[in-house]
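A protein record in our archive is deliberately plain, so that people and models can read it alike. The tokens are whole numbers drawn from a learned vocabulary of local backbone shapes. For reference, a complete record is included directly beneath this paragraph.
>
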Amino acid sequence: MSGRVVPDPAHTCADRAAKDLVTAAFRAIRGRYVQDRHQIAAAVLDADGRVHLGLHLDAMVGRAAVCAEAGAVSAARLVTDAELIAVAAVRYPKPTEPPLARVVPPCGLCRELLLDHAPRLAVVLPGATSGLTPLAGLLPHKYVGTKWPTPQPTADQP
């Protein structure tokens, strides 16, 4: 990547779990970044303490793209049924941008997907003192279908 130094954004995190997830996502995207193909990585922590990684997959047809958070949940579900506890996503800068990776919140589609598979999930949000925030608070009126029984999270659940 042309020798450019991009610092780990984990220094903005308020607690150890958030720092560890951000660092894991940052290391993943730093090693796999390809402009216009892979710009975000996500890390999901399960109840057994394992971290699962996902990589953003862009596509020529935008609707076919896959978010990093979806990839991380899929990776987790390949190896465990443990509850998913927390998630962080990091966007790597394009060569034309300042060399600052940043924590990014899950998009609306990912918020729905994550809460389908982890109703008590916490998320690392961008900010000067990022910690873990209940994802349900970011999507207070989640869609609930009839495919399977879904526990209803509340905004105050960690």
Q: What stands out?
A: The radius of gyration is 15 Å. The longest helix spans residues 16-32.
